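Q: I have two molecules that I believe assemble together. Could you output structure tokens for the complex as a whole instead of separate predictions?
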Amino acid sequence: MRRERVQWSNIQALVMSGFPALRYAAYVLFRFEEGPPGPQPHASEWLWRLCQRVTTAAHVGTGDVPQACRYAASLADLKTLTERAAPPADIWALNVAFTPSGLSLLGATDAELGRFSAEFQNGMAPPPDADGNPRRRSSLLGDLGANSPQHWSWGGWSACNRFDGVLMLYARSPASLRRLVAAELEAMRGVASPVWCRTDAGGCARFAQGRIYPRAAGHFGLVDGISQPVIEGTPRARSMPRSLRAVSVVAAGEFVLGYRDTRGAVVRYDDPAVPGSRDLGRNGSYLAVRQLEQDVEGYRQFVRDAALRLLGRDDQDAFDWVAAKLLGRRPSGEPLIPPPADCRDEEQRLNGFRFSAEDRDGLACPLGSHIRRANPRDVVGPDPETALRLSRMHRLIRRGRSYGPRERRPGAGAAGVERGLFFICLQASLAGQFELVQHSWINNPQFEDLGGDVDPLSHVSGDTLTIQSRPSNLRLTGRTPFVRVKGGGYFFLPGLNAMRALSEPGLAHGRASQALAAH
Amino acid sequence: MGPGYTTIIAPLAGDTALALKDYLRTSANPGPPAAPGQGLRCREDFPFDGIPTLHFCSLLVLDADPEAGIPAELVLEATFDGDRDAFLDDLLASAPLGMQRAFAHCRGYPLAGAPPVGESLSPAQREAFHAYLSSHDVGASAFFSGSFGRTVAQIRDEHRLRTALREDLARQRLGPKPMPPTNAALQGSLQERVAADPTLDFARTPAPEPWPIRWREGLASVTGWALLAALAGVGALVLAAAGLGPWRLWHGAARVLEVAHAASAAVIAGGWPGVGGLMAAWPVLSGFLALLLARIALRAWELHVETGSADPHRQSSLSAALAQGLSFVRLALSALLVQYLLVLLAVTLLPGLEAEAPAARNEIAAVRGALGLAGQPGVRTTLLGLAAVLLLLALLAWTAGSLALAGERDPARFALARRLAAEHVAMLKIAGLVAAAVLVLRPFAPALEPVLRELALLPRLLALAMACAAAGLAVAFVAEVVLLALIRSHEIHDCFAYHSADELMRVPLANDAARAREERATNITQNHLASLTYVKPGAFRLLLLRATLWFIGLLARYWFNQGSLGGISTILSARWVVIDGGRRLIFLDNYGGGWESYLNEFIDMGAVKGLNAIWCNTFIKWRPPGAADGARRIAFPATSFSTARGAQSEGPFKRYVRASQLETLAWYGAYHTLSIRGINTSSGIRRQLFQPLESHEVDALVSDL
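A: Yes, here they are, computed for all two components at once.
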């Protein structure tokens, strides 16, 4: 098969990097000002200028964004990068994503919009039906009960339901981030305004702030973001050892539209029958964003209780043992499946393991642990090789960050402080990737025939937990959730080609009317 | 035996489809369970849970198609234990009101006019209603059950057993008492748990195993041999027609020698002095080697096609079909190889062979001379020859052992070459054994001749049978090529006759939530999918569809009866029914998991071939939103040779399924939180619990708890 060239300079940088060196982030939800129907010269002009500020994947690793922003090649890199002393210059990154209404207001026709996936068009939380029952999507994602979109602070059924897009801004220091946000708000004045979100405390937050904390550990104290898919054809994919490549390397089309995916198909959004039709999907990627509130005290309590019941003690070792069994890795990120003795490659050690060959029974890494559910590798399928191939179609590029202040000392957190995870993942198919992972694996009580367990970490329902062990399994019942969904939405991260294509008619219109006025 | 099933399809009398749909949605569809772990909450009109033998039941309405002259129809689908009549009686006894209210909409409804009665029907009424229902039962063209041979009670009991053991074990594990010290004691403690609970008494006796499961493998191999025998019969007829009757083939041994000699006689005549003796043996050896090499090459290609890629997206169906079809050549080559061994045996062991094949007299003498068999051999020659043959055999045995070990160590590495080598090593072993037999028996040849003549019948018969089978397979291959060509021509024709499924990609399909049932709290683990498609017109398509369904139904019953249908192990109970006089195909499927992941399994695994083979014969009538013109005929995504591509184009395929999907108005599942995998594991636990087990088997048993 012919190798395809990926147009990195047309793809937003988030696909390539989570900007680990830019530890401060702001997510600004915005809504376009309603204008007269027809092309919107102001919005077009804003979008056109924004194209020049958007960080692209081609910038990653070049002078524009420091080398450090590339994928952290290993856990060691991840640590040193994020703990490095204050940066010298004011370095930042900017990406932008839109909802269907945003694309429509920017001038995408109904026919063009109709080609985007149905999940994107319906949104993450479609309003309930006439009888008040939640829609298919809500139950598919597990957004029921306390997690129902009814209670969300954004993106749900009630307040701030409509937003047209999100600006994702990344900087190296709080001051730098403030300047960046102010500049961007200024730039969108008259075109769009930020959406205010309801918080539990009753106040309003203008935007969510994301943080990468030292050692890349989240609020639960677990190092995150170790296993990420690597796009086929990138230098990093080529330099990988063969066995690791089978686990990590995934076709570009699984994340970016317009390229070959694992099945060899290419998704195109233009109409071959209509000459000159625009392909607004090409080089773009779908974003699933979820705000997950984490009850740190509840989590600690649960792990302590579990340690007491399972091991009879609740010291740090026992605590870490239980935490590791929930996650599937040690809190430091070390895998629970021991690497081969002769393994020298750091990444191979952290990420090269396979479940079927090395831990089929889940005695090391429990069958229902978080990492096994999120990426079952070579487990779900008729044989390991097929399973590994199938699992490559359901990988997510995760770009989430923590939000809210870090708890300084265990138990010292002030009540009412909101903290959690701003989960962001990228994929080419929301249904086949985010939704499938969520429904068939994370929230599936029948996963690996466990009969009742759901994901122990992002767990939102269910009340049992099974840890495979000998002579018999360890089972706990009576859990209460410590993660709550607080908001979410589906966005599209367009390619720069699509952003330029969207801004051009408006610009032409604007220039024409200016010319008319000059006469 | 497998579960019973019924598919009752009754046409509606008037234009009341909407009212009926509404009624079924609100008064037949069970609600979510009151509490986790409980059964579905059935409605008053349809207390499905009152029928203890019912696995699954669904009700839906097919819309009228005035264009085709098909009225709206009510469909009742049920999977149950026991026979149909008992089930219909149970259904009428427990849901008299609902059944009357639903079927009152139907044409020819026997109790028309009488107001629905809430209590039980009178015997006469029940009989009339029963007769009406059974006269509208269309059964299934193909039926699959994921828990073949297990009753509702058994599935529930075994789940209860597993849950009880699981909870007990968990308590014991975390309790103050130490766990049993050995695995045998652990198994004993589980058995005690069962003994302590009278409600688990059933677990002491193993569940009956239906014969299609027990004799599954024997049945399959018997069928395979029978098929081959039938083909051999066909082959014999064809050969006889071609002038190669059984009698001529019977004397083929000598003929093979003649033919082989004719080809190389010139070489020998040309004379390479000194090697003349060896060259004289050449006709035998060169023929053998050439045949062996040809067979190796053919088999290598076959294996390459067969195992080249486990990924159906990368497999070529045409070369697979060719490889399968060309297996007759392989068989013919094998037959010739056997013939060669036979010739070797005959030449060396039968002194009177010349008399039997006078035409080959000179050649036989030459071969004997070359092999040093002209006179009685010395003991030394025999021993030396025997030693050489034994060395060769030892070498072959060592090679075979190494190949097997290498396979165990890394199954994926050189899998193809290993399989090829192992096969031919085994063949060479047989040749070596034959040679050894020759060497050992030859000194006694004159004395043994009558016995050997009798014995030589066997390999001769084998060679004859193989030749006939090869001819039969060749005939089958020609038939296959013709069939494939026919299918292909229809496929090409359909590209022009129908709209492409790609058109569905351009518009967002409305109302998919109503069709997929994952949206409802009743269908989180198990789901229902109802799909209605039209069969492409023409006798060929209908015949192809019916043949495919018949074959799949056969496979589902006798081969795929252990929980997985062609590698898909999420189907609980599925049926395909050709209805309306062969004009439409309805597919009713109770499956586990989500719609998206369920369809992905088909797209990405080998089962896609079966799916394509069925639905490539169908199209749907689809009205684009906002279009003024009538419905468009959209064909199933283009297949190639009926099994390849098709559903593998994910987007159009999923849209096609969505567009063909009907709303399941009411759905009931007796064990709605269980998966096929879970059901099968629970059965395994019950089967093993009271068996004497090895330590590792106890480990495996306990790890499932």
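A: One point stands out. The longest strand of chain A covers residues 483-493.
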